[in-house]
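call fold(seq) -> tokens
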Amino acid sequence: SQDWERWLPHVSELTVEVYASLTPLPTYEHQN
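ret:
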């Protein structure tokens, strides 16, 4: 069974959203 092909894209989207919330844009500006 390849059910992972159905939820994997959703997990990827959630991961991106989580990383975005954990690393706000102003944070990387301080690294300059």
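The first helix runs from residue 4 to 22.
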